[in-house]
Amino acid sequence: MKRCREAGPGSRWLLRPAPAKIHSLGISELDVYNAVSKSNINIGGDVIVDNSQAYVVRGIGLLNDINEIKNIIIENINGFPVLIKDVADVEISNQPRLGQVGRSDDIILNGKRTIKDSTDVVEAIVLMRKGENAAQVIRALRNKIDFINRKVLPPDTQIVPYYNREDLISCITWWKVFCLSLFWYPSSCSTGGPH
C-alpha cells in the first residue's frame, strides 16, 4: 500500500483478505480493493517490466497506520458497517526485493582449491566517459577504491573488483606499439612517417 513508517524503510502494509468471509457477506474482493483505494487515494504500486528494465510505480497515500486500514468501511449492510478488519488481516511486511546479485570465487583454502559462493553481494559498475584515457581512469579508480577501503569502510567490508580492464588495456597498448613497430622503419623517418 505504501511505505510503512513504523517498521523503517523497505516495509509496507500487507492486506490478506479472507475470501470465505468476504463472500459470506455478499461482497467481493474488488469491493475490498476499491474501499482501500478510495480511502488511501493511492495510485497503485507495482513493477512494470519493459525488456530488461524494471520500473517501480508507487503512489503516496493518506493512511498512516494499521488501525486506520483496519477500520476502513467497505460497505454498509443493514445499517452495520463492514470493516476491513472483519474480512482481512492487516500486517507489516517487507517490500518485494527487486534484485539480488551473487558471486562465486575460486579460492585456495588449506592448500585446496575450492569455490566460495556469496549469495548476496552489492554490485556496482563504473562507466568511463567517451574519449577518456582508459589507463588513467583505471589508475584513478584503483586509487579511489584503495582510499575508500582503507579510510571509509568498516574493516569487515571491502570493495573487491571482480572484472578489471587494467590488464586488457595494458596488453592492447603493448600490442599496438608492437604492431606499429613492425611497420616503422628507420628509413621512413626521412619520408615523414610509417608506410
Structural description of this entry:
- The chain has 3 domains: 11-94, Multidrug efflux transporter AcrB TolC docking domain, DN and DC subdomains; 101-164, no CATH class; 165-195.
- Helices cover 33% and strands 28% of the residues.
- It contains 6 helices and 8 strands; from the N terminus they run βααββαββαβββαα.
- It has a two-stranded antiparallel sheet. The protein has a two-stranded antiparallel ribbon with strand order 2-3.
- The chain is elongated and about 95 Å long.
Short description:
With 195 residues, the chain is α+β, with helices and mostly antiparallel strands. It contains six helices and eight strands, in the order βααββαββαβββαα. The N terminus is likely disordered.
Separation of termini? 71 Å
Describe the biggest sheet?
2 strands, antiparallel
| CATH class category name of the largest domain | Alpha Beta
CATH topology of the largest domain: Multidrug efflux transporter AcrB TolC docking domain, DN and DC subdomains
In percent, how much strand structure appears in the residues? Answer: 25-35%
**What is the 3D form?**
elongated
Mean pLDDT: 80
Number of strands: 8
CATH architecture of the largest domain: 2-Layer Sandwich
Q: Secondary-structure blueprint of this entry?
A:
Layout: E1 11-17, H1 19-24, H2 29-40, E2 45-50, E3 53-58, H3 66-70, E4 73-77, E5 80-83, H4 84-87, E6 88-94, E7 101-109, E8 112-121, H5 134-152, H6 166-183
Antiparallel strand pairs: 1-6, 2-3, 4-5, 7-8
